[in-house]
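In the present case, backbone shapes were mapped to integers, as reproduced here:
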Amino acid sequence: MNILLLGSGGREHAFAWKIVQSPKCSRLFVAPGNAGTAEIAENVAISATDFDGLLQFILKEKIDLVVVGPEEPLVKGLVDFIRSKPETAKLPVVGPSKLGATLEGSKDFSKRFMHRNHIPTAAYETFTPDQIDQGLAYLERQSLPIVLKADGLAAGKGVLICQTLEEAKTALKEMLLDAKFGEASSKVVVEEFLTGIELSVFVATDGISYKILPEAKDYKRIGDGDTGLNTGGMGAVSPVTFADDEFMKKVEKRIVIPTIEGLAKENMDYKGFLFIGLMNKDGEPFVIEYNVRMGDPETEAVLPRIESDFLEMLLAIGTENLRQYQLKISPEYSTTVVMVSGGYPGSYTKGHPITLPEIVEHGVIFHAGTARNSEGDLINHGGRVIAVTANGGTLEEALKNTYTTVHSISWNQVYFRKDIGHDILKLKK
């Protein structure tokens, strides 16, 4: 098979790493890819949102399967575009339609979907700029802290947790009236703050049947002890000990099944991955958000635990044959630590040469914001640069293996959290 994978982050490197392990893979192209995908696949200098360029490439290279990594092309309607062309109408694509992708593209849309399908989530109201007075009055009636979410895509930065009423009112005005997050905050969802412990549940679906993949917990804050600014993710752990069989049965019954049935009932063409951000509140699951693709860096922790052929799963999703697929999951722990450019998520400098170990004894190095300079040296080219993953029979062993490799990688101003998984180790005790 000739496969085209879209994206350029650590998630896509992990996808590529898993896809090329399949005997069914003839050629794998990654558009646009990064320095890591270039070592195991063929990078293509086409943006994931250049629909015409992608279509021409699909036809030229006789692509048999398209796998969409990031959310932006999905929200912009790539799947509908491919389906609308006679020559690619039947091409299997892993990713939902534009309507299905609105579950991530609009927080208000996804909350209304949950409400219609009786899926447990936090209480909320949505406001537009002309409803600013109603929004401010609503805030006065709520308990604190309170959550404000930009309705649209804001690169993971559009969620604010406000501790005081004054802070919440200022934030609502900035988002709605000053376009703090641009078009993304032309609507704002004001949501009840849920207490508990967060986790991510991943579901593969062909629109008819589904498979629940390994769950994970990610770490969003830049600083140890979950302090500082939010990021795209500083690390991940899978499995998570607080998601036991009883809890996961509740997740499947109350959230996964009603979601899949809701997609079908509302005629959302959905063949792809569904990332369900959950809160475990005293043993009860509540949905925080939907994403319409795999998470990053959770993917780098989840995929190494999948023992069955990943390409076969992708093909089964795209051809509505997922019911036949036998998913095999390793019982081992998998942990991921993300290494970032100093200064991230604020400003940082690019172009620093990266030193990697000649032999990686423990785990895998996934590239994210990497590139090659004119001399061919590997350099940092983004905020989140490298994700290191390792497995182990225990969480302690997996973390030890991961950090051993992390300490063998260096570049100027490199930064990483030193406490990934420590909260789960404390829970176990």
Observations:
- The chain has 13 helices and 23 strands.
- The chain has a mean pLDDT of 96.
- The CA atoms of residues 48 and 285 lie 34 Å apart.
- The first strand starts at residue 2 and ends at 7.
